[in-house]
Design brief:
- Helices cover 12% and strands 31% of the residues.
- The N terminus is likely disordered.
């Protein structure tokens, strides 16, 4: 068990991080919201066009076909070491950050 003293005050508790995810399902796409980081992702069925009204809304931080067929995008540099351990370093194609 972890010691909560070592978790920064703004860090999510490891036992309830799914409380910060919200998924809305639609016909051929879904919207995944990460409420902890205030991010929104539009995932749509591969081979289909993403819903234009959602694309035009500008609400989503990332729009991806599913299954995704090429490369990884990361949002923070601490995400690199786990990918290296999995042998996926060469798959990183984008850094999405401020």
């Amino acid at each position: 068990k972890y010691d909560p003293i070592f978790l920064p005050a703004n860090q999510a508790n490891l036992d309830d991080t799914t409380d910060y995810l919200e998924i809305d399902y639609f016909g051929y796409y879904k919207i995944v919201k990460n409420n902890f980081h205030n991010k929104s992702y539009l995932l749509y069925q591969c081979g289909a066009e993403p819903p234009q009204e959602e694309v035009n809304s500008g609400r989503h931080d990332l729009i991806l076909p599913v299954p995704h067929k090429g490369g990884l995008a990361i949002t923070q540099t601490p995400q690199i070491p786990p990918l290296e351990l999995l042998g996926l370093r060469e798959e990183i194609i984008a850094y999405i950050g401020d």
